[in-house]
Amino acid sequence: MDTIPNLSYNLLAELDEPYANRELAGRLSCTRLTRGTQDFALADGISYELTLANTGEGILLTGTAHATGTTECARCLEEAAFEVTGEVVGYFILNPSQHDEELSDDEFTVVGPDGIVDLAVPVVAAVIYELPQVLLCKEDCAGLCPICGANLNEQDCGCADEPRSDHPFAVLKDLIGD
Ligand SMILES: [Zn+2]
Ligand SMILES: [Zn+2]
Q: Would you place residue 135 in the very low, low, confident or very high pLDDT band (cuts 50, 70, 90)?
């Protein structure tokens, strides 16, 4: 997996301005994402549109992240195209002792005294969350022949027509008779 560039942002200026909003838009240049064993090639990085809002107690991050690219078709292993838009969310607080006790630990990020956060983390997470589990190159992809491995979208290998004595159902056929 490529290293994803940081999107460092200093929240201290935001924290000084209660109830102010800041808009951020741009593009993270990353070419590849992985989730589990699946590899996703990105066509043009991850574009994002973010809003940082000072709630008075912390900085609420909202926005969208968008990416297009290709991954392996789940059936034929050729390229399959995807396009995803994920929702970016985050909540940053400077002083954990001041935070609302109703928030659980996974609902906020504590910002260090320097006020620097890496917004690439929630942006990338939003896209990864939306990446398809199973993607097909086309809805009716014929997949690979389970016998010879040929791509059945490109050719009819003929295996399906060939009677095979070692086929599990051949035994049944003998038992049942004609
Ligand atoms: Zn396919
Ligand atoms: Zn075949």
A: very high
3-state per-residue secondary structure call for 141-175: CCCECCCCCCECCCCCCCHHHCCCCCCHHHHHHHH
Spans of all domains in the chain: 8-141, 144-178
Provide the token pair at 161. 């027509």
| Ramachandran class of 77: left when φ > 0, alpha when ψ lies in -120 to 50, beta otherwise | left
Task: Please tell me the number of the ligand nearest to residue 157's CA.
Answer: 2
The residue type found at 141 is C
Closest CA to 22 of 58, 63, 50, 47: 50
146 CA to centre of ligand 2 in angstroms = 7
Q: Is the pTM of this model over 0.90?
A: no
Rounded to the nearest whole angstrom, what is the distance from the C-alpha of residue 144 to the centroid of ligand 1?
8
